[in-house]
Amino acid sequence: MAAKQTNEMEMSFLDHLEDLRWHLIRITVSVLICATLAFIFSGFIFEHIIFAPKRMDFPTYRWLCQASRLIGINDTTFCATEFPFKIQSRQMSGQFSADIWTSIFAGFVLAFPYVIYQFWSFISPGMRAGERKHSRGFIFVTSMLFFIGVLFGYYIVTPLSINFLANYSVSSEISNEFDISSYISTVRSSCLASGFVFELPIIIYFLTKIGLVTPQLMRKYRKFALVIVLILSAIITPPDLASQIIVAIPILILYQVSIFISKVVVRNQNRKSSRVPN
């Protein structure tokens, strides 16, 4: 009898592994399909998306230039005519590799809602019917937060990073000629990091559901969270105070929203507990 139960448990575990394997295969295929589409339109992606933040007519630079002039600052790099750097490829396969990896990155961003759907399809069978009912908007909210984060990284973090690093100079004897892989890495890391940071409310929701986080705990360690946010802002932005503050503000707002979400989750759990008869 014990051997039979053990065999059933092993088969159940193997079934879960098989199910996970198929979810991962679907995720990989979806990313590859979207990456292929991105590769077909790579000319448009590079010209109008990847290289757009290196041109001074980018919307963020125009807004910051106007804001600087409104407060009386006319001599600012945001109002320049062009950046003092060139992008080059120093390897034989440099441009081809950049095209491939950019397409994969774009494919992941485009396929993100389906990736989340596959992730949700794998974990949702283990939830109760009530939990699945109240979590129907999970895919939409998660995807929306990710895309907002990517846009924030593209329109705020990326131009601030490029503007700071391109104009930073230790000597006039040195000219900036950045490798294409370095430039694309800056754009990619800024967008992806911001996209995942904006998933903080979702992460707090699940951590609260399993009892690892409470609103009281988040309020108690708010000061420490502020320090972590500033460190995180320093990692994904150039090391100037203004850029770090610009990035830190939405993250702090997300932290406050996460406290509210944690409070709602705990309140709903307490209501369910009070309804259970003794």
Please give the share of residues in helix: over 70%
Give the overall silhouette.
flat
Which oligomeric state applies?
A: single chain
The count of β-strands is: 2
**Contiguous runs where pLDDT drops below 50 for at least 5 residues:** 1-11
- Largest sheet entry: 2 strands, parallel
Helices and strands, in order, run as HHHEHHHEHHHHH
Helical segment tally? 11
* Cross-sheet strand order for the largest sheet: 1-2
Task: List strands and helices in order, with pairings.
Blueprint: H1 2-40, H2 42-50, H3 59-70, E1 85-88, H4 94-123, H5 129-134, H6 138-167, E2 176-179, H7 180-197, H8 200-209, H9 215-220, H10 222-236, H11 241-275
Parallel strand pairs: 1-2
Overview of this protein structure:
This protein is mainly α and about 280 residues long. About 75% of the residues lie in helices and about 5% in strands. The protein is built from eleven helices and two strands; from the N terminus they run H-H-H-E-H-H-H-E-H-H-H-H-H. It has helices at about 1-40, 40-50, 60-70, 95-125, 130-135, 140-165, 180-195, 200-210, 215-220, 220-235, 240-275; strands spanning about 85-90, 175-180. Strands 1-2 form a two-stranded parallel sheet. The longest helix has about 40 residues, at about 1-40. The radius of gyration is 23 Å and the shape is flat.
